[in-house]
Amino acid sequence: MAMTCMENNCFEFRGVNHFAIMARDMNDTVKFYSEILGMKLVCDVRGGNSHHFFLEVGNGIDVLAWLSFDTVTDSNGLFNAQLPEDQPGIARSDLFDGGSGRSAVGSLNHICFDVPAEKLSEYRALLVSKNVECTGIQDEGECRKIFYFQDPNNLVLAMGSYYNDF
Known about the structure:
It contains two helices and ten strands. It is mainly beta. The protein has two domains: 16-83, 2,3-Dihydroxybiphenyl 1,2-Dioxygenase, domain 1 (Roll); 85-166, 2,3-Dihydroxybiphenyl 1,2-Dioxygenase, domain 1, CATH 3.10.180.10. The strands form three sheets. The chain has a four-stranded mixed beta sheet with strand order 1-4-3-2, with helices on one face. Strand 3 (50-56) and strand 4 (63-69) form a beta hairpin.
């Protein structure tokens, strides 16, 4: 008989440690997340054939990790990937490529940052003022409000807020 975990008594997860995402250009990626989104670079790990930058989201807990493998060092000492281009609708969401927002099974479709509902319009306007293309704010029924935008790697990001706690 298979063991079932209710309210996760099987593992003591404290949250997600980080998401590791491939970067096309580390300079542009770090600049976007630190200067546009205001995230703090908390760790820079270089070793072997890889380079990781860890950016703290802002709550003191959650981190996004950007990495490159089999890379070359640019004039600033940053690694930049020699990678094939992404494939909208397969490796990532095709939302900003005229598609419906779909991506392949197992791919990272988008990352949504939780923000206060009353700040959604203000944050969207701030991004637009920094020349970041954004969708309109979408009201998704009884669940949440959300809007989408992209980073320099064409990764679809979002800011959203749930109406109720789960």
